[in-house]
Amino acid sequence: MRRMSLLDSPSQGSAIHPAFIALKARCESREIVDLDAICIEFVAAFKQFILSYNKPSDKAMSRDVDALIKPQLSYITGGLPLPLAIGNLVKQLKQEINALSDDCTEEKGKQQLTDWLDEFVENRIQLAFQAISLFTRDKLKGAHVVLTYSWCPLVEQTLLAAHEDGVNFHVCVLDSYPCQRGKKLLNSLCKADISCSYGLITSVSHLIKQCRLVLLGCSAILSNGYALAIRGSSQVAMVAQAANIPVLLAAPTYKFVDKVQTFTEGHRSSCTALVSERMEMIPADLITAVVTELRILPPSSAPAVLRAKQLVV
Amino acid sequence: MAAADVDAISASARIGKIRDQFIVDLRQGRIRGTSYHVAQATVNFMRKLVANCKYDTYDELLTLLKTEGRAVTAAEPTEFVVGNMVLRILKLVREEQTRLILGSDDVALADPADALHKLWKAPEVAQKEIATKQLRKATIETINEFLQEMENSRDNISSQAADHILDGDVVFTFGQSVTVDAFLKVAATKRRFTVFIGENAPSCNGKALLESLKSDEKCSWAELRLVEDTDVLPSMPQVTRVVVGAVAVLADGGFVASAGTLTLCLAAKRHAIPVIVCAAFYKLTPKFLSANDQEQFNKLLSPSSVLPFSQASSYGGADVICPLFDYIPPELVTLYIPQTFGIAPSHVYRLLGEYFHPEDIEHNL
């Protein structure tokens, strides 16, 4: 219903591609909430957009596509900034588009761009997830009891994969009102017969004593080593640090952003279509290490990752 | 002979009845609400023993109070206030006895435990006999005085409020504490400041404190803001003071308070913000605990407020927990405010020496 009404809306004009309209509707209805899923859907929408593109004979593809992208993006975000990781993706995609030679044919250009997008999802998300799962599994082996906060699909996948590989551990899931998103993680862990504890974020000091490792998700790592994560993560990391428990952040390199920030924006930072939860900064000194698909790194190595992945602007 | 036996039986039955009634009240939560009420009920129970039970000498009275006190302390071991009050009454009875014998107020002189350097001139106090009637009357009077002191303690704490809160301060507190409520209200009659209140899920009693502060017409607040439990650390840069209540102040200078307070105190430490703990003397607990002694100080509430039972089938094997308390180590505390004047956590042990008799503490630990 919602999708239809958005399609009919005359104010949006016909310039917006239906794939983007559908994506925004699904994000707004919170059908997809996690950044990784949104990123994959975003790439899929972009692919559809590029495939249905018709190159006018008098324009070069690179400049024409570049100009067409802008309204699509501002429609999706409603004028607000994109989530950092997706902004990163868009930046790289634009580089790809600009790299198209002027005499590039429509077919060749489309092929090149969709290949790049496919490769992005495969290498930077899917394979990266697997690599991170493997790195984390070794850490879980010695940990026995691991604590996590709220729900992050990468953390969920990692825990399930490690359990499947025969690693034995107990998971403490912390959660917060009002969303209680951690219930989703708890449900899938229970289904897989992993032994779990569950409590609200105020129980952190009660649970942290039995834990040997804290594993958190995040939605971006900045070049000063600070991490953007769901509200409450920094507190959990702080209590863990006070109890001498290492804090690992699972972050594929596509979430590394060449940007610095040292504070959490106040109550103004609200949710947008693509950001369903309020976010905060985790200071770098509360993070023991970041698990990326390259290796396990200290947060201070964020600039090196940016360089290695050519994400520096 | 037979009559004396019957007497003894009926006396012990009477004691048993008083004790059982108190324990049942305590367990069934009939003693409502705050630690103050629990403390008051315990002192009343001890007073009943002094008033109604049979004893001939001071030693008999002390033994009676010790045995019964130990029984009620053991009945509810995590309710520290009960044990504290038992110890406090024992100390008062000891003091009263020396006062009766010496006929002077120089109690410190009489009790060698109070002043080590006076040990050599400690008088022989135990030899003089006191009439039971006199002992009973004097002890009850002391206990009544003590109850009065307890009643005034909250006022005495809040009267110091304006010394610790300044105009333009941003005070962060967590959950609801009656003592903090009174403290902030008194401060607000003299100062204009902002209060951040940690919500404290699942009970969300921070909301209750917010309503209580808002409804007081005598106070004018710069701002009252409810802070979600996830936002404690991110909002700390705006805060200038942390004021919290305690359930128990421990011998090492640490304290026990609502779950979530540790996070607040760690955040305050991280931002070098002073942490002020308002706690009346009846919360002073002569025990050494750490975060590892969870079962000794913590209570686990029903998990239904965290995950409703109706959803239990989706989370089959999960162990859902809802702890009530946190232990906060002394290094995170700047100042305690009991009813007299503020003290540093490193000074708490001195107060313990003043309030309790070392011999009783030894048995208690």
Automatic annotation (TrEMBL), chain A:
Its main location: cytoplasm. Keywords: Cytoplasm, Initiation factor, Protein biosynthesis. It comes from Plectus sambesii. Pfam families: IF-2B. PANTHER family: TRANSLATION INITIATION FACTOR EIF-2B, TRANSLATION INITIATION FACTOR EIF-2B SUBUNIT DELTA. GO terms for cellular component: cytosol. It is found in: Cytoplasm, Cytosol. It comes from the Eukaryota. Belongs to the eIF-2B alpha/beta/delta subunits family. Component of the translation initiation factor 2B (eIF2B) complex which is a heterodecamer of two sets of five different subunits: alpha, beta, gamma, delta and epsilon. Subunits alpha, beta and delta comprise a regulatory subcomplex and subunits epsilon and gamma comprise a catalytic subcomplex. Within the complex, the hexameric regulatory complex resides at the center, with the two heterodimeric catalytic subcomplexes bound on opposite sides. This is Translation initiation factor eIF2B subunit delta. Gene3D superfamilies: Translation initiation factor eif-2b, domain 2 (3.40.50.10470). GO terms for molecular function: translation initiation factor activity. InterPro entries: IF-2B-related, IF_2B-like_C, NagB/RpiA_transferase-like. The keyword Secreted does not apply.
Automatic annotation (TrEMBL), chain B:
It is found in: Cytoplasm, Cytosol. The keyword Aminoacyl-tRNA synthetase does not apply. GO terms for molecular function: guanyl-nucleotide exchange factor activity; translation initiation factor activity. Its main location: cytoplasm. One of its GO terms (cellular component) is eukaryotic translation initiation factor 2B complex. The keyword Metal-binding does not apply. Gene3D superfamilies: Translation initiation factor eif-2b, domain 2 (3.40.50.10470). Belongs to the eIF-2B alpha/beta/delta subunits family. Component of the translation initiation factor 2B (eIF2B) complex which is a heterodecamer of two sets of five different subunits: alpha, beta, gamma, delta and epsilon. Subunits alpha, beta and delta comprise a regulatory subcomplex and subunits epsilon and gamma comprise a catalytic subcomplex. Within the complex, the hexameric regulatory complex resides at the center, with the two heterodimeric catalytic subcomplexes bound on opposite sides. This is Translation initiation factor eIF2B subunit beta.
